[in-house]
Amino acid sequence: MKTQLYCTVLLVLVLAATAAADVYLHIPPGSNNRFDENTRDRRNANRLFDSQNNNRGGYNVQNYFLYEGSELEVRWTNQHACGPNHKTHCNILLQYRCDDPANMRDGAVTATIPETPQGPTDETYSRFGMHEDHDWYQLCKTTERNKGLFTASQQLQGESARFTRQNPGGTRRGLECPEERDYYPYWRPTGWVDIAYLTDEPETLCPLVLAQTENLHPRHYCALNLTNSDRKLIPISPGQCALANGTWTAVPPIAPTQTPECKMAPWTRDNHLGNTLDGEVARYRWKVPTGVYSENCVFRIRYNITTGDYKAWDGADYQQNDRQGEKLGLTEKYGYEAPFTNNPQVDPFGMGFTLQLAINTAQYGRTFQDRSHLFSIRPRPEGVLPTAKIHNLNVEGKRGNIVQVFPGVEYQFAPATLNMKVGDYYHVQWSGSNNNPGNNDGNGQAQTDRSNIAPLLSRTMVYPTSIHNISLAKNAFADLYEPQYRGSIDELNDAGTYFSSGLLQASKSGETHFLCTRNNDFSNRQQKGTIVVEDTQSEADYIGIIVGSIAAAFVVAAIITAGVVYAIRSRSASAAKANAATDNSRGFSKLHDEPSVARATAPAPTSSTVSPVDLSEVGSYTAPTPV
């Protein structure tokens, strides 16, 4: 009977022993393990998860909500090539997870959560951030690692799932399980719901992904109480589970109505955290699931790169593990001594001199990661049909010039051009921080993120147009009501970091442009956007400025007159009611109805009973491929 999981592994030949490929989320804003630091570098790379990214990445804590069924343009940058670039192989996995607030929170400090639970009533303990719970990590420590995996020349320092080729010492980051972080699809229940798998080899890998995703296929674990067993670790195969007097237990698919999309990844160039071929950052349009209502969700992106020296997903497993690096067969392939070890010296030309390659076998098949801060998924407002399309219009970036914010980005609306149809809804929303580095460039009060929206006649202009000169929009702007008085408002210093317009509806076709008056510093940055609404029946003659709720959105976000910021009601957005409420637990003011929602309908593993599974012994299973 098999006792190993025979898994194929995506590998990478990294070009430098200290190389970092890096992946950074921009929408939703990725934390890169930051909390609310006022320093360029994050203070704790081990706070919540293992990113393996540069310390300067990430945005300070900020929260927001998404309507169920709405569409969000997820935006990120990855350092090395991806998609049809042909310089490397890559895979990008997008996932989300929701949980109870006792098990998922941003926290209030930058320190890593203690490994030993302090109890739910310990106020000091509750200040630590967490994305996974203690039971999950304890299960990781007490479960056998998958010994069928390729570990190259690395000497793993333990036998549990804490120890992997990328993390041979079992370093703890938050309460994340290193083996689950490094490999996909994972063989035991995780709680992470797959959104999309983007790869440079969709014809080969997409059938495997869809045949193995936890969304649609069950996972198994060995229910075993180690205190009543002579075993030190929980087994991961049904045979070994039976020998240990455990119960091999099935867990149903986590999201059977959510089939992940699998397709070609967007093209990106190597050694560059920049744009794709179309001049925008890499992005994916995510349709937020319906029927999943939770105030505590996290978005995750994982990025894996590999070279073509061998088919890492088709043949490399534990049988090629050796400290001398000979079993992988590169010597036979290239015709000269080519050991698979750290910093090998090779003589590829047979001329009696060697070249040293900058290789670290711990980085082969290397996986990078970023996660968002907490966000919420909420029901649609009453009267908005389930079939109606909802778009999200956000602000990405943070305070500072391009050098100061890197590898983050400067402010811009996202998407910069929002395309809709008449009758579609849209939600304008942004958040930010009051604690950016003190010397970061920007306007208004130092350290603060602020945005607003004011209408433009053209994106080439920097002076907003007067609403009194827009005859087609007068009716919409006449619906001003409930002025919200603030203090210093010319540069938005006393405005809040968070804004939500609620749900608005596009009533007529047309095109309109807008800018942020505070951040559109012509010397080094632009924060401008465009909304285009097309007729649902036929091509529309663009009229320059959209009437109805499109025009209202400009004022909703802060058309400023005599020190007053107005919240606007659009006649064509009757479904959106702007009732101000404050959520002290999240630290922002909301201008929308807040329906009462049930928490965490997406199931998450519970620690005391969930353990790994050997799917290779459960019928038609194809060995998992790491991210």
What's a quick, concise take on this entry?
The chain is built from 8 helices and 27 strands. It has helices spanning 134-141, 178-182, 202-212, 238-243, 330-334, 402-405, 474-477, 549-556, and strands spanning 23-27, 65-67, 70-78, 89-98, 193-199, 219-223, 247-251, 261-264, 282-287, 294-306, 345-346, 355-356, 367-371, 375-378, 390-396, 412-414, 417-421, 425-430, 454-456, 480-485, 499-505, 510-515, 528-534, 560-561, 564-568, 580-583, 588-591.
Report on the structure:
The protein is mainly beta. Helix content is 8%, strand content 23%. The chain contains eight helices and 27 strands. The protein has helices at residues 134-141, 178-182, 202-212, 238-243, 330-334, 402-405, 474-477, 549-556, and strands at residues 23-27, 65-67, 70-78, 89-98, 193-199, 219-223, 247-251, 261-264, 282-287, 294-306, 345-346, 355-356, 367-371, 375-378, 390-396, 412-414, 417-421, 425-430, 454-456, 480-485, 499-505, 510-515, 528-534, 560-561, 564-568, 580-583, 588-591. The strands form seven sheets. Strands 1, 3, 9, 15, 16, 18 and 21 form a seven-stranded mixed β-sheet that branches. Strands 2, 4, 5, 8, 10, 13 and 14 form a seven-stranded mixed β-sheet that branches. The radius of gyration is 26 Å and the shape is globular. Mean pLDDT is 79; it is low at 1-20, 470-484 and 537-627.
- Overall helicity: under 10%
Mean pLDDT over the full residue set: 79
Query: DSSP strand (E) fraction?
Result: 15-25%
Largest sheet properties: 7 strands, mixed
Rg from Cα: 26 Å
Instruction: Enumerate the spans where pLDDT stays under 50 for 5 or more consecutive residues.
Output: 1-20, 470-484, 537-627
Structural class: mainly beta
- Could you say which overall geometry the principal axes of the C-alpha atoms support? globular
Q: Termini separation (Å)?
A: 28 Å
Strand element count: 27
